[in-house]
Q: What sequence folds into this?
């Protein structure tokens, strides 16, 4: 920033919070336009109105503030007539500054400070980058553009802040701190400029006539935490999401866009904005820490992959701990991010560039260097003909983010990233990438879990090792035999026997019982409480097996005339344990060719068709069959329904889902039957719940539990009632009818 227009943050705070405002402060003074290149913005002061989103805080009354003068266009000597890298920056965005009340109560400076962008801009100027770049005229975002992403009423909720005086801010301090926000009367203006700046940057990159191939939006406040109906996490409007929607509106829905979010915090708002949109791919690399790292929700787990038409269009790479460095991030880029992006082939790339995973950041706890960031950006620039928009998100060490921003800007300008030393990803990072690959291989052909297996020094020592999954299977089979007398069901087909050895068990009355439960589920889980990547010694005091499937088995096999499923009559049980590792373990351990997710699904289908054709279909027509799926078992059972005529015998279909998106409704002539016999339930924070999803998934029950493993336990009474009604409601109705006839 030139000396003529620089402003200290202390002076800026004095201009926003004058110690003794006079009468002149009760008239709102709009900021002057920026040399004619700033179009008319929305209203600068809005009254309260009822909205569909949560209401604004109470007690806000008019008290405007004096704004700093906008920065004029840069001197011609710093703006060469031909430039291919654009930038957005405006000193008015410095006017979103914490109030004295916040400082007094918090006792420290808020990390989302004005110096974040002024420090970056000064760094770029000192390095001679600004004079090689082309300034993109900034403007305020409009209400209509905001409502492409945010719900009606969100605009008013943000803009009521313009009327806040010092006493209002003091009274609403706890409300905004609960949202991880601070406010002053100029916060809405800064939010409008921040969002408008990213929009104009994206439009400039898309418009070939402007001769801007890529650009850097140096803006604040950030945006990726702002959800459609809520401002939170230092964010008021979701800048990048709004820009992507404006691009869609301007260039058509066929434009494919990707948002790569490398902020250390999960971009919950951005993910929610596009969770069902197949044309916008969202990829986030963030700290997850078992949902304990902000925003502290399972929404950022690796299993959140999108829903409806957007299935597979969300990719979460959630680290389970801090300390991640260049090697870890670049490993994730090479194994997951870039293969998916090449397959997706975007027309425009957004980078939600939070630099809070940088070394020295007070919140991120990671160690990514400026060179690491520049290498990630360099890879992204190979996409979309180089049309890349970098928009600042988080990052709270001014020196660290300035150095990272400079490294990325130099790459945007065409320079080669600095050389990195030898790169070896950590064990925890390779494990996360491996887990992500197993999830995303269902949606992307370019992701091969076998190529993402973590290092294992014992892998070659096959005479010394046994898979934990095999130990679990052996334990469970012995347990089910001793308690329920379930025995292995023979699979005569050699291919099925190799793929599912000892995975299918059944009770000895399966040929004679009139009611049969087909229970398909994942293998039991093991809880490792004391294991780290460098610690392979397990203590029996802190590690244990979690198996909720026993609940179904006890109920099914109980002979109790009141609480048992059969009400005193025998019920047969077929129990199918799906292999715990698809697809990488099948081929080396079982010599079965499993090359893709489609092959996995085919193996499920082949197994269930075999069970149906050779056992269930041979039983009498009046047989009652109950299908119960848990976890992956839901998807497996769904593959059977279109293939076989199951409607006559199947009386109930129970599906207990984990965090993977529930399967869609049945199509065609089986849809009405499917809706009638189905009971489906998901964890409480599963993203599919909501009015917009009912047409895609039909009615879904929402458990009170977040942990998928506990959903089955806590929903068992509902499941028992549903199945009992399916089996015995007609008997009760017939009995009632007979009694009524006898009384006439």
A:
């Amino acid at each position: 920033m030139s000396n003529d227009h620089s402003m200290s943050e202390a002076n800026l705070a004095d201009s926003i919070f004058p110690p003794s405002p006079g009468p002149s402060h009760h008239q709102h003074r709009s900021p002057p336009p920026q040399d004619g290149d700033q179009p008319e913005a929305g209203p600068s002061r809005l009254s309260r109105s009822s909205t569909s989103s949560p209401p604004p805080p109470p007690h806000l009354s008019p008290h405007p503030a004096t704004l700093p003068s906008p920065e004029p266009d840069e001197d011609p000597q710093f703006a060469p007539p031909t430039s291919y890298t654009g930038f957005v920056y405006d000193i008015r965005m410095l006017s979103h500054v914490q109030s004295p009340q916040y400082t007094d109560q918090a006792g420290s400076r808020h990390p989302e400070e004005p110096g974040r962008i002024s420090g970056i801009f000064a760094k770029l100027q000192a390095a001679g980058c600004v004079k090689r770049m082309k300034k993109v005229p900034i403007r305020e975002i409009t209400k209509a553009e905001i409502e492409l992403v945010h719900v009606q009423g969100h605009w008013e909720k943000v803009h009521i802040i313009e009327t806040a005086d010092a006493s209002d801010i003091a009274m609403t301090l706890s409300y905004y701190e609960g949202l991880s926000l601070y406010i002053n009367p100029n916060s809405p203006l800064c939010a409008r400029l921040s969002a408008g700046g990213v929009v104009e940057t994206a439009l400039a990159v898309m418009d070939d006539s402007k001769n801007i191939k890529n650009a850097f939006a140096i803006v604040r406040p950030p945006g990726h935490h702002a959800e459609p109906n809520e401002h939170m996490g230092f964010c008021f409007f979701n800048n990048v999401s709004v820009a992507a929607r404006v691009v869609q509106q301007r260039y058509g829905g066929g434009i494919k866009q990707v948002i790569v979010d490398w902020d250390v915090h999960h971009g919950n708002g951005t993910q929610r904005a596009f969770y069902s949109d197949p044309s916008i791919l969202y990829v986030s690399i963030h700290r997850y820490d078992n949902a304990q790292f902000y925003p502290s929700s399972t929404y950022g787990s690796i299993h959140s992959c999108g829903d409806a038409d957007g299935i597979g269009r969300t990719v979460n790479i959630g680290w389970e701990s801090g300390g991640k460095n260049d090697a870890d991030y670049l490993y994730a880029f090479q194994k997951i991010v870039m293969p998916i992006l090449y397959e997706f082939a975007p027309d425009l790339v957004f980078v939600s560039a939070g630099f809070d995973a940088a070394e020295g950041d007070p919140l991120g706890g990671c160690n990514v260097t400026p060179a690491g960031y520049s290498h990630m950006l360099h890879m992204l620039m190979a996409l979309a003909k180089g049309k890349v928009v970098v928009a600042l998100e988080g990052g709270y060490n001014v020196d660290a983010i300035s150095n990272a921003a400079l490294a990325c800007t130099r790459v945007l300008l065409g320079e080669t990233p600095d050389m990195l030393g030898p790169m070896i990803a950590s064990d925890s990072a390779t494990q996360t990438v491996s887990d992500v690959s197993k999830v995303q291989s269902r949606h992307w052909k370019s992701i091969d879990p076998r190529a993402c297996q973590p290092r294992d020094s014992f892998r070659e020592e096959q005479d010394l090792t046994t898979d934990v999954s095999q130990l679990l299977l052996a334990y469970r089979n012995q347990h089910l035999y001793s308690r329920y007398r379930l025995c292995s069901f023979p699979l005569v087909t050699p291919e099925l026997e190799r793929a599912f050895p000892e995975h299918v068990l059944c009770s000895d009355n399966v040929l004679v019982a009139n009611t049969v439960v087909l229970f398909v589920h994942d293998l039991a889980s093991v809880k490792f409480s004391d294991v780290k990547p460098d610690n392979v010694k397990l203590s029996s005091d802190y590690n244990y097996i979690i198996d909720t499937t026993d609940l179904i088995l006890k109920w099914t096999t109980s002979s109790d005339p009141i609480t048992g499923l059969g009400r005193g009559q025998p019920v047969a049980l077929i129990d199918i344990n799906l292999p715990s590792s698809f697809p990488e373990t099948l081929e080396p351990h079982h010599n079965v060719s499993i090359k893709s997710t489609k092959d996995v699904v085919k193996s499920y289908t082949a197994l269930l068709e075999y069970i149906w054709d050779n056992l269930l279909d041979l039983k009498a027509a009046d047989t009652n069959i109950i299908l119960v799926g848990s976890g992956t078992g839901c998807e497996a059972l769904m593959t059977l329904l279109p293939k076989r005529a199951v409607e006559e015998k199947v009386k109930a279909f129970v599906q207990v889902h984990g965090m993977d998106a529930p399967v869609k409704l049945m199509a065609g002539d089986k849809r009405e039957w499917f809706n009638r016999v189905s009971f489906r339930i998901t964890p409480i924070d599963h993203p599919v719940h909501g009015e917009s999803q009912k047409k895609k998934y039909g009615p879904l029950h929402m458990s009170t539990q977040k942990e998928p493993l506990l959903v089955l336990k806590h929903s068992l009474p509902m499941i028992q009632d549903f199945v009992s009604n399916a089996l015995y409601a007609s008997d009760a109705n017939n009995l009632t009818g007979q009694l009524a006839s006898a009384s006439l």
Notes: The chain has a mean pLDDT of 82. Residues 84-284+326-424 form a domain with the Arginase; Chain A fold (CATH 3.40.800.20).
